[in-house]
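Why does residue order matter? Because the sequence determines the fold. Keep that principle in mind as you read this record.
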Amino acid sequence: MIEVKTVDKADERRDFPRGHIEALHLTGLDFAVATFEPGWRWTDSLRPIAGTETCQVHHNGFMVQGRMRVKMDDDGTETEVGPGDVFVAPPGHDAWVVGDEPVILYDFAGQMAVDYAKH
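Structure:
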């Protein structure tokens, strides 16, 4: 059986300081649309919710809009992700919005849609 859902009618929305995610749950795929406003940083907005020092979620993403910087815990490597970029970010990172434009990204990993930013 085929399943089709639209991002305009997410199954759930989770709000947090300076951002939110909208999650869609399908058989075999949990999909999230994340929106982060200028000034958003994981360690400021989500550390209190997650209870970890940095993000421990694996992300398979596609950047739709805006720019985001990501810094890995293990070796301090930093990279910037922008519109049109496909990225993989393993657990153990911090991330923040760069510039004045909101970030919109699609996350296909599933874990973001399942338990990211749940209180």
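The beta strands are 12-16, 19-26, 29-36, 59-65, 67-72, 78-81, 86-89, 93-98, 103-107.
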